[in-house]
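Hey,

Quick one before I head out. I ran the complex with cytidine-5'-diphosphate overnight. Inputs first:
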Amino acid sequence: MERTLSIVKPDGVRKNLIGDVIGRFEKNGLKVVGVKMTSLTRQQAEGFYAVHRARPFFGSLTEFMSSGPVVLMALEGDGAIKKVRDLMGATDPKKAAPGTIRADHADSIESNVVHGSDAPETAAFEIGYFFNALELL
Ligand code: CDP
Ligand code: MG
């Protein structure tokens, strides 16, 4: 069993895609073990994406991520990290495989609807960034 952190980003919430995203995860055997809706401050978004702080898109990305409510969730399942990444599709929706969340719904490489942790260490950091032990099943 593995855990991962996913986010329905502000564009996904604005486009009424919360149910679609969570539904895809649940239909593919992932269990929601923690979930909450909140709005991130700019500072919280900067802390979450700290690994990207030197990248040219950091300012725009953190502005976008703090532009409206998000749904944060911790998911559990066999190979959960890769499963979520596969369901999301590539970062750039133009390169995302057909049938993935980003191919179906994303508008741009930035506004791409969903986040998923990319490795066990980042999953542990990201789950801990948003959830305390009492908030997880
Ligand atoms: O989210 P993912 O792991 O697929 O991509 P990333 O390389 O970790 O980048 C994090 C997020 O930054 C992406 O999901 C996009 O929202 C944004 N990004 C961007 O705006 N422009 C890029 N060239 C790359 C990423
Ligand atoms: Mg990433």
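The chain is about 40% helix and 20% strand.

Talk tomorrow,
K.
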